[in-house]
Amino acid sequence: MKFGVFLPNGSNGYIPSAGSPIYEPTFQHNLAISLAAEKHGLDFVLSMMKFRGFGGETGYWDSCLESFTLMAGIASATSSIGLFPSISILSQHPAVVARMVATIDDISGGRCGLNIVTGWNRPEYAQMGMWPGDDHYQRRYDYAAEYVEILQALWQSGRASWEGEYFKIDDCSVLPTPANPIPLVCAGQSPAGRAFVAKHADHQFVLTSEDNLVRSVEDIRVKSAASGRKVGVYALFHMILADTDEMAQAQVRQIIELADQGAISNILASASLDTNTGGTADQLKAALDQDVESGNMAFMGIPVIYGSANTIRQRIDAIAQKTGIDGMLFSWPDFVAGIERFGEEVLPDLQVG
Ligand SMILES: Cc1cc2nc3c(=O)[nH]c(=O)nc-3n(C[C@H](O)[C@H](O)[C@H](O)COP(=O)(O)O)c2cc1C
Question: From ligand 1's centre to the CA of 43, what distance in Å?
Fold first, then answer.
């Protein structure tokens, strides 16, 4: 079982609530988190990219450190942990990104992967004149498929020509190539997103309830086997670890009571523009009413594992055994303290570790 950290390079991490720490993202914070994760033997850190936040009283994600430049800094200050920057594919040409990844791979000695983000949120790109039109909602995974094929061709041979619907490159040279294959991850959840993942990614990130996870793992297994591939599933969770179950429950209650309703309604307004159904936009809408175990909007729809170290250990073992996932990606209200406690009190005695 692999364990990763969802780096808080956007303001306030992944909890739109005044009941959780409110902060600006900084390199020093993200580095301290990465070093703590590396010290405890966690497998990877992943930073996101949001070009426009969701405001509200907490200014949720209004600041966001750029994913690749942040990971380059973390690469040079760490030695063993895996590094996943996120590419919002509408924002950069694949030939530029192939080179950026090769550069971080060189800085880190072969530790760089890539998270493919197709872009479900029009305002982020429209503000920069980069939104190609609302057709993109339906066509984003076709665009992503071309994008990834170009990346792979350039990484494999350092040279590629391509004439597709979205890209035209002519004997394009991108050297140096990375020393090892670059692991690709993607969080596509919709039918189109899952088909893309099965064909092009090495791992899928999923945010959903435990029961849905079982179906999700099976679905990706079947779909990827059909194209002769094996794609692993990593599930996303918040972790709230306290001295007792009651103390953890009190923290969860406070986060729900102080949820940033302004930010949440801005997120849902953006999600409601997405015409690609059955994916994250629909999940976010459903998360308004869901319990925290399944994913509530006070936690950005991400399921929460909470309790004492003992309870959290049991939950992780149970989820891993029931669902057959390959890894978990965690976020905490207070990342450094959370990772330290996870590393000291939970990890050593996990059965699935
Ligand atoms: C672990 C994880 C990381 C993600 N990173 C980003 C990101 O950096 N930027 C972004 O706009 N969306 C991000 N997303 C959203 C997904 O990329 C994707 O757009 C979303 O899950 C919608 O799936 P769908 O397109 O199939 O509906 C992330 C989701 C997960 C679970």
Answer: 20
